[in-house]
Amino acid sequence: MNEPLSAADARILALESDVVRGHALKLLVLDPGRALDIEALRASVAERLPAFPRGRQVVVDDRGVPSWADADDLDLAHHVRQRAAADPTELRAVVGHLMSEPLDRSRPLWSIDLIGPLADGREALAVRLHHAVADGLTAVRFLESIVFEPHDAPAHDVGVRDPEARPTRWSEWERMPQTLARELGHPGSRSPFDRPITARRALAFVDVPLAEARAVGASRADHATVNDVLLAVIGGALRRRLLHHGHTPRLNAQVPVSLHERGEDAAASGNRDSFIDLDLHLHEPDDLRRLDLLSAQTRERKRGHDARSLDELFHALAAAGPVGVLARGLADDPREFALAISNVPGPRVAVAVAGRRVAHVYTSSEPGPRHALRVAAISNDRWLGVGFCVDPLAVPDVELLADAAHDAWEALRAGSA
Fold first, then answer.
1. Do residues 115 and 96 make contact, with C-beta atoms less than 8 angstroms apart?
2. What is the CA radius of gyration of the chain?
3. How many CB atoms lie within 10 A of CB 284?
4. What is the separation, in whole angstroms, between the first and last Cα of the chain?
5. Strands ordered across the beta sheet of 339-344
6. What is the mean pLDDT of residues 269-274?
7. Which homologous superfamily is 3-147 in?
8. Where along the chain do the CATH 3.30.559.10 domains lie?
């Protein structure tokens, strides 16, 4: 029996267009070693795929309702492929092409590309999942279920909420005026990323040492989280690049917030997230002071349960027809948020693929119309891997933005020493 897509998953699927592909990418960089065998990789994926049922399903039109249905056939040669790349520049070019290539709607909405080997013996796996199949946390469950070698460490529970702690719906609506004032009541300047986009994509990556990021956060008078540090790094990078171009506008960032709950089937739950909007404080010249300002904002939003309140609001407005569409359009305006910055907890222990340690994990999510820059981060046991994804025609030189993020991180680390 077919299963209708959730309202959130259906909305995400409907956003797909000639310039928006609708998927995210996880890039796993493996330590040097014996080259992976593509047939062995396909056999391993086929054996483990039943642990992630959405991986064997396609989207069908069931009397006008988009629904999940079991695929008649699964061609692993289509889903698990091999591509050549000799160095990091070629690797980035390959993953940029993958981000611009649509997933085939007639097949299950995922792919795994084995890339390399690079000249130094490293290889990479580029794993794409459509956002209608998985949000960030669910995508990590896909990696754990299908790609990483099995291990005994429990799944990371950061971003997973206790359902018993959920506020009552009345308390959500009682707080709504304050929530709207905090989240949507302070539009920024005209965004430099408010530009038309094409289907082209360019990517760049930077690493932040995870233990040191925690230490920087812990050194502040009011403890800052790793996510606060990430926001400060991105804010510092944008300030540096925009100063280079002669101005520092007031920009807000939209930060997705997981609403997954403990005990749910993460592999089948699809998208369960909301968001908060934060001022990136680009006018603040001191990187540590910017971290403190961002940390104060995130604490206030958490105390107010803003993400869940906004989720309740937009669920209610979804049934309001044109009014709901108008409200969503206002929330998505580039002056409400110039770019989205997401952070997903990845494997918290060392993991491997076919005996090769996964040294680095990165993630990339799509930019959107009038939001030509997208930033996404994922952690492993040692690093916070940050990915920048742009339309290179709208935002050139994405590598310089990654370099600026490295400089911003070094300033935070040096200032807190």
1. no
2. 21
3. 20
4. 59
5. 202-209, 383-390, 373-379, 339-344, 252-258, 273-279
6. 67
7. Chloramphenicol acetyltransferase-like domain (3.30.559.10)
8. 3-147
Question: Which residues does 393 contact at the CB level (< 8 Å), separation at least 6?
Answer: 197, 198, 200
CATH class in words for 163-344+369-375+382-416: alpha beta
What crossing angle do the helices spanning 398-416 and 287-303 adopt, rounded to 10°?
A: 90
CA angle (326 as vertex; 324, 327 as ends), nearest 5: 65
Residue 244 confidence (pLDDT): 86
Q: Provide the pLDDT for residue 107.
A: 97
Question: Tens digits of per-residue pLDDT, 361-379?
Answer: 999 999 999 999 999 999 9
What span, in angstroms and rounded, lies between the C-alpha atoms of 410 and 78? 42
* CA quadruple 86, 374, 362, 135: dihedral sign: negative
Q: What is the pTM of this model?
A: 0.90
CB atoms closer than 10 angstroms to residue 244: 10
Burial class (CB in 10 A: 0-12, 13-18, 19+), 410: middle
Positive or negative CA dihedral for 26, 19, 203, 212?
Answer: negative
Residue 53 per-residue DSSP state? G
Judge whether residue 182 has pLDDT over 80.
no
Residue 331 identity: A
Q: Residue 169: pLDDT band by 50, 70, 90 thresholds?
A: low
Tell me: pLDDT of 193 over 80: yes
Place of tokens 């084995």: 114
Q: Say if strands 356-364 and 352-353 run parallel, antiparallel, or are unpaired.
A: antiparallel
Give the residue range(s) of CATH 3.30.559.30 domains in the chain.
163-344+369-375+382-416
Residue with tokens 């403890």: 223
Read off φ and ψ for residue 250, nearest 5 degrees.
-85, 115
Q: How far apart are CA 197 and CA 191, in angstroms?
A: 14
Amino acid at 311: D
Closest CA to 293 of 282, 309, 306, 304: 282
Cα torsion 13, 18, 24, 30: sign: positive
Tokens of 21: 């592909």
